Amino acid sequence: MHSLDHILQKLVRDLKLEGGLAITSICNKWTATVGDTVAKHTWPDSIRNKVLTLIVDTPQWMHQLSFYKDDITEKVRKFDVDSIRFRIGKIPKPAVEKVAETDKTLTPDDLAFIENTISTLKDSELQEQFRKLLKHGLTRKITD
Questions:
Q1: Do 76 and 103 reside in the same domain of the chain?
Q2: Could you read off the pLDDT of 40-98 as tens digits, one per residue?
Q3: CA-to-CA separations, 79 to 25, 28, 41, 94, in angstroms, rounded
Q4: Same domain, yes or no, for 66 and 110?
Q5: Residue 73, CB half-sphere, CA atoms under 13 Å: how many?
Q6: 3-state DSSP call for residue 53?
Q7: Does the predicted TM-score (pTM) go above 0.85?
């Protein structure tokens, strides 16, 4: 009689699901593995024959990352990946930082900053638009 773990491992191997499990693990740890900057412009797409395909958002980033291909490959080796390749594509929504509203209220210093910033503007309509923009920017934050 085999253990449940052994049976599940054999089932995963027989159904060729290892890549799916590995890619899920890589996606969950992507930012921690490659860092914020690279993670903002790339996303793990698939693994076939130990080759990880990364989606890259622009040709410029693809070119830049080609210089760091060996470094990135070394970082993902722990996921049983031997090499990587790049392809241009759209980064999926979960990989992109989300902007969320906060309940932050503006402090007197924030309000003074806003008024000092817009005080040089002559047009009152323009002042009001910049006031709204600055208030909006100061009450939002980037979340993971």
A1: no
A2: 999 999 998 899 999 999 999 999 999 999 999 999 999 889 999 999 999 987 544 44
A3: 8, 12, 20, 21
A4: no
A5: 12
A6: strand
A7: no
